[in-house]
């Protein structure tokens, strides 16, 4: 049985003295290991574990850890709702923002790329909820993903060909399926002489490339000013002469700017999109297009012209993140968007 692990926020947030777990066979720790701000000390044993990708705290009900095989309760965690609320406020403060009744749901990125999202009651009726995304130090290339079983040798060759031909790519999949990882590996294969500019809501793309410029959106302050949204950042990025323009995740009106850019001579670009399956992509894009003032047919023509290939990734029951399908955007008989599945997907 593990020793009790009691969170003590009012005593410097220090965790119980427990030897942190190590990965089987050794290996590099996650990015969180390099961060030792007092607010993160209750999570040291999980941040030190290189297999951990996500940490979830559901008020006083418990802490859950995802090591690539789904979230599992940590039986050693002990904390009250008051503890968890104090912890959430401290974590958000580390990211330079305030979490309180006036701003009950906040998302921040901490040094090293650790991403923290926190929600307070009554928005979360059962108590304070904290979600922590832990990035990995490594910046995998396509060869690394092939070795992990994400695709076979034929699939790797097809992906490398997409980069070489400067196809505009949309990577889709569910949350945690590996969209950002695959996109980063694709971009790492780009010619070193190319200038890659990435635009993200919260900067997560780590690319093994010598010329990578990152832009990150900024949320408005308590007075409602100072915010810089993704759609504006896309326009700013176009003034930076990118050889490849990338939008980390299309969630709203920025889809219009991305499609417009990729339709005006900017090839080799990319974006990611949440979708449960390859053939769910048209509906997701139509929904985003509506937010940007595009009707279904206008959106379809924009996508068919701008996006060369859609790559869909999924997470298997055993936790492996795989490239599952590929397709090309096409117009159906009614002039709406459809996906024509490709036979060369891994």
From TrEMBL:
PANTHER family: TWITCHING MOTILITY PROTEIN PILT, TYPE IV PILUS RETRACTATION ATPASE PILT
Signal peptide annotation: none
InterPro entries: P-loop_NTPase, T2SS/T4SS_dom, T4SS_GSP_E_ATPase, TadA-like_ATPase
Domain Bacterial type II secretion system protein E: 41-312
Family: Belongs to the GSP E family.
SUPFAM superfamilies with a match to the protein in the record: P-loop containing nucleoside triphosphate hydrolases
Taxonomy, superkingdom: Bacteria
GO molecular function ontology, one term from the record: ATP hydrolysis activity
Ranges where the record places region Disordered: 1-34
Protein name from the UniProt record: Pilus assembly protein CpaF
């Amino acid at each position: 049985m593990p020793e009790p692990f009691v969170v003590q926020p009012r005593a410097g947030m220090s965790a119980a003295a427990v030897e942190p777990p190590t990965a089987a066979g050794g290996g590099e720790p996650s990015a969180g290991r390099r961060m030792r701000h007092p607010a993160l000390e209750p999570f040291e044993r999980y941040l030190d574990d290189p297999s951990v990708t996500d940490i979830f705290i559901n008020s006083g009900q418990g802490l859950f850890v995802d090591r690539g095989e789904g979230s599992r309760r940590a039986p050693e965690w002990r904390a009250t709702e008051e503890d968890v609320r104090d912890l959430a406020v401290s974590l958000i403060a580390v990211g330079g923002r305030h979490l309180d009744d006036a701003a009950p749901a906040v998302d921040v990125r901490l040094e090293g790329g650790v991403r923290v999202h926190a929600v307070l009651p009554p928005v979360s009726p059962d108590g304070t909820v904290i979600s922590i995304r832990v990035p990995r130090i490594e910046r995998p290339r396509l060869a690394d993903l092939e070795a992990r079983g994400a695709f076979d040798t034929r699939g790797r060759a097809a992906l490398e060909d997409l980069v070489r031909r400067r196809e505009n790519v949309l990577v889709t999949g569910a949350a945690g399926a590996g969209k950002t990882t695959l996109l980063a590996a694709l971009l790492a294969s780009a010619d070193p002489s190319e200038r890659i500019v990435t635009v993200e809501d919260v900067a997560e793309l780590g690319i093994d490339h010598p010329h990578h410029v990152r832009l990150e959106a900024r949320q408005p302050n308590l007075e409602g000013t100072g915010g810089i949204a993704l759609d504006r950042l896309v326009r700013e990025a176009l003034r930076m002469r990118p050889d490849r323009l990338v939008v980390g995740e299309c969630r709203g009106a920025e889809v219009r700017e991305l499609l417009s850019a990729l339709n005006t001579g900017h090839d080799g670009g990319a974006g990611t999109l949440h979708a449960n399956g390859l053939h769910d992509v048209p509906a997701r894009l139509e929904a985003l297009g509506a937010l940007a003032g595009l009707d279904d047919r206008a959106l379809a023509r924009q996508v068919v012209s701008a996006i060369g290939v859609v790559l869909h990734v999924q997470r298997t029951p055993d936790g492996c993140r795989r490239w599952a399908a590929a397709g090309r955007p096409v117009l159906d008989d009614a002039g709406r968007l459809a996906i024509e599945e490709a036979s060369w997907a891994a």
